[in-house]
């Protein structure tokens, strides 16, 4: 069972992002304020759920949340300011939309760029510890998946309907064969998937384009 909140004095929003490690498309972030007495037996880190459960939970979250918002930062801005800063920016954009305004923010991970004067706590693997962060992880993931399916219609050669822009072997092979699409992040290097098992596990590197 996840925890309902981190502190009891202020309205608390949970934040998480999706798409940080992708080769293409935006990074999405969500911010969610859940009611104090909220509990749910299935709600968990989006990575621990099947796709059908994520979408069912998205409907529940949007009905039960006191407030929620989803925002994105596109690939060209990611290349300009780097993926870490783009992730923070997407979270800030989501927080900007919340009403009521949070008095405390829970962030999934170990780093964050301060949001005005609102205090925050960074929680490693927080999407598996707090309801609000888990809810944010589900919204960010499902909204980004929907977006990438739309892009996949424009560029079916990269398999985005299945890989959602993540650096799978098939995706990297497609980039090597077809080159970058207009939606790829040029600041991410795409290694040949045949080079080594190590490169497969390492993921993309933010160094130079293909």
Q: How much helix is in the residues?
A: 25-40%
3D shape: globular
In total, the number of strands is 5
The major sheet is characterized as: 5 strands, mixed
Category by helix and strand content: alpha/beta
Oligomeric state, counting identical vs distinct chains: single chain
- Please give the count of helices: 7
Radius of gyration over C-alpha positions, nearest whole angstrom: 17 Å
For the terminal residues, how far apart are their CA atoms? 44 Å
Low-confidence stretches: 195-210
Give the strand line-up of the largest sheet.
3-2-1-4-5
% residues in beta strands: 5-15%
The average pLDDT value, as a whole number, equals 91
Q: What series of H and E elements makes up the topology?
A: EEHEHHEEHHHH
Name the features.
210 residues; alpha/beta; five-stranded mixed beta sheet; 7 helices; disordered C terminus
Task: Please give a structural write-up.
By secondary structure, this protein is an alpha/beta fold. The protein contains 7 helices and 5 strands. It has a 5-stranded mixed beta sheet with strand order 3-2-1-4-5, sandwiched between helices. Strand 1 and strand 2 form a beta hairpin. Helix 1 packs across helix 4 and helix 2 crosses helix 3. The radius of gyration is 17 Å and the shape is globular. The termini are far apart. The C terminus is likely disordered.
Strand and helix layout:
Layout: E1 12-18, E2 27-33, H1 51-64, E3 67-73, H2 75-81, H3 83-96, E4 104-108, E5 120-123, H4 131-154, H5 160-163, H6 169-178, H7 197-202
Parallel strand pairs: 1-4, 4-5
Antiparallel strand pairs: 1-2, 2-3
Helix pairs in contact: 1-4, 2-3
């Amino acid at each position: 069972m996840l925890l309902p909140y981190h502190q009891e004095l202020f309205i608390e929003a949970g934040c998480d992002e999706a798409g940080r490690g992708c080769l293409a498309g935006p990074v999405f972030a969500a911010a969610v304020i859940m009611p104090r007495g909220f509990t749910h037996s299935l709600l968990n880190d989006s990575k621990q759920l099947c796709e059908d459960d994520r979408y069912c939970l998205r409907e529940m979250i949007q009905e039960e949340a006191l407030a929620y918002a989803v925002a994105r930062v596109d690939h060209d801005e990611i290349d300009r300011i780097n993926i870490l800063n783009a992730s923070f920016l997407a979270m800030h954009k989501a927080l900007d939309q919340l009403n009521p305004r949070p008095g405390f923010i829970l962030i999934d991970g170990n780093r964050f760029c301060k949001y005005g004067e609102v205090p925050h706590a960074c929680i490693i693997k927080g999407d598996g510890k707090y309801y609000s962060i888990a809810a944010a992880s589900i919204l960010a993931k499902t909204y980004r998946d929907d977006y990438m399916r739309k892009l996949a219609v424009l560029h079916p050669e990269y398999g985005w309907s299945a890989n959602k822009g993540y650096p799978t072997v098939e995706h990297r092979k497609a980039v090597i064969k077809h080159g970058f699409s207009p939606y790829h992040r040029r600041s991410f290097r795409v290694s040949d998937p045949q080079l080594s098992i190590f490169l497969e596990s390492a993921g993309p590197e933010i160094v130079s384009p293909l």
